[in-house]
Amino acid sequence: MQSGDEVNLGLSTYRRSVSEAKRKAILKAARDNFLGNGYSRAAMADIARDADVSTATLYKHFSSKESLFAAIVETTYSRIGVVLSSDMDDLTAREIFLALADAYSTQQIEGRINNLFRVVIAEVPTAPQLAKSVYEDGTLRSYAYLQKVADALVARGDFKPHNTADGVRHLGGMLKEFIVWPALFSQEFPKPDDMKKNLEACVDTYLKMYGTGMNAKRPERDTIGN
């Protein structure tokens, strides 16, 4: 027979699970509404209906449409580090940045961040805070993570000492030419067949600029990304 504490713990776990499921449903419904209607025309009532929750539940999770949009951006951009959540000590600098570049392309194209970019650009005159949210919580957050990886690679001798903040932006600029800019001027932009080749060219150019040529795996390395 379960004790009162065990019952309460089970109920608490169940409620958290239900709450998280509702939050995910809200984020999906909001993303679809923002992409389909634009930020200004997306209504919180419609988002609640599509997520199959009450408006009270929606506002319990997100106090405003702006905070809901910011959560979508933050959630999507946070996934770029997941690809390297496992131990990277046995990966070369090239393997690490190819994985990150592939995650970035998937995030922007299949994750529809490029579509959100178009929504934000259209709303800049009336809602400039959206652009600030995307830039600070999305773009700058991604660069901060990449810089952390680059700093660790400098420490373990795979990269030459350099201004890693500028360096990762050089890589980002190259990648955007193939991942972001073409998509901003196209309603539908599927990942091109030659994407892998172009990502490899960008990463190899970056490594040629800042790498030391230490591409062989080594048994003892500082931990990266922790």
Keywords:
226 residues, Tetracycline Repressor, domain 2, mainly alpha, single chain
Furnish the topology, listing elements before pairings.
Elements: H1 4-37, H2 44-51, H3 55-61, H4 65-77, H5 93-110, H6 113-123, H7 128-155, H8 164-179, H9 181-184, H10 195-210
Helix pairs in contact: 1-2, 1-4, 4-7, 5-10, 6-7, 7-8, 8-10
Descriptive report:
This protein is mostly helical and 226 residues long. It folds into two domains: 4-63, Orthogonal Bundle (Arc Repressor Mutant, subunit A); 73-210, Orthogonal Bundle (Tetracycline Repressor, domain 2), CATH 1.10.357. Helices cover 69% and strands 0% of the residues. Helix 6 crosses helix 7 (128-155).
Shape: globular
Number of strand elements: 0
Looking at the structure, the CATH topology of the largest domain is: Tetracycline Repressor, domain 2
CATH superfamily of the largest domain: Tetracycline Repressor, domain 2
Which structural class should the secondary elements be placed in? mainly alpha
- Portion in helices: 55-70%
CATH class of the largest domain: Mainly Alpha
Rg value: 21 Å
Total of DSSP H or I helical runs spanning 4+ residues? 10
Mean pLDDT comes to 85
What is the number of independent domains?
2
Low-confidence stretches: 219-223
Q: What percent of residues are in strands?
A: under 5%
Order of helix and strand elements from N to C terminus: HHHHHHHHHH
